[in-house]
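User: What would this chain look like folded?
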Amino acid sequence: MCGRSLPLAGKEKKEQRRARTGSGRRIGQAAHCLTVSQSGLPPQRPRAPRRGGYGHGVLDEATFAASAAELCAADPDLAAIVSTHGLPEFWAREPGFATLVLLILEQQVSLASAKAAYGRLAARIGEVTPEGVLGSTDEELRADGFSRQKNRYVRALSTAVVERSLELEVLESLDDDGVRTALVALPGIGPWTAEVYLLSALRRPDTWPVGDIALQEAARRSRGLAERPSPEELDRIGEAWRPHRASAARILWHLYLSEPRRVSSA
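Assistant: Here's the prediction, encoded as structure tokens.
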């Protein structure tokens, strides 16, 4: 795991506006990649996701290093990043309910705000579970730092898990599209959240969050582009990196974090 965070959701419009106007904090401080102490999640090494019916490999330190080597051998831009900044440390999040709650909290707010809200929730209810969320009053969640909208989102997630309309352990056995379909059916979980869950918690090797602003910016820098690529353009760029796009994303985020600068207007 690494001690620095990865970029905030590109789909979060408030952060997008802040980046373009130059106001607010620098994009890139939300928390895909957290130490345990930073995230507020229980102090344990994230377990490897179960393959189940998925039937394909998941990323770990060894497979990430191998896929990164293959990418760098084929792509001089990625090779230049690794040559200059080294290979990024492999990081992961624990699959499950708590990580999804944290991802919801990270939408449209700073890392510090999301971490603080999650920490207050965990301090009040102990282990972050669907039952603990549903047993909380609206006033308690508001005091924890949940907006009315995010209160609704985490309650909907909690209800889906309790009622088994969303079986989180089953997600680990689904293919990537199956995971995306199951997650985005819930209010408050969009393509970015689903993609980052696939990448960071389920460790899928070919997920590619094209809506992420920092990933777009890193691709712009590495490719020497005048403007940040749109999600559609980034999707086309990523085609060359199949089936290792998640490893390419990790390398590009490493560039972004290693060379901090204000995101240019697009």
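Confidence is low (pLDDT under 50) at residues 1-5, 7-31, 33-39. If you want, I can go into more detail on any region.
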